């Protein structure tokens, strides 16, 4: 029996919703993102154990867009360290992942399998991952420096 997989279709409402929510999360974590240079470190810990430090770094600030690097430092040794580049569109109030690790400019749909082994919905998955990461940081993160 020959079973054909249904072709993936981009859910624009889901993608735009994720990008809008990411903009709101980034604005809470880095309210002065329009100022260059700017950086913020948010510690993630469980009890006394430091699990990592989220680093939000402004790479480029323009009147309508800001480019950020979102990465993690001091991660657990067995955990791969994620690094994302995010373009923030202030006029549209959206934030979109434009680079992850060594891949740039993601297409909306990929045929599968492909040489780079991207998932058919790679762009959507990366933006949803950014949202989950930022949500976790907002819920469990704290300032790195101790309050005196």
TrEMBL record:
Domain of life: Bacteria
A Pfam family per the record: DUF1249
InterPro entries named in the record: DUF1249
Protein name, UniProt field: DUF1249 domain-containing protein
Species: Aquipseudomonas ullengensis
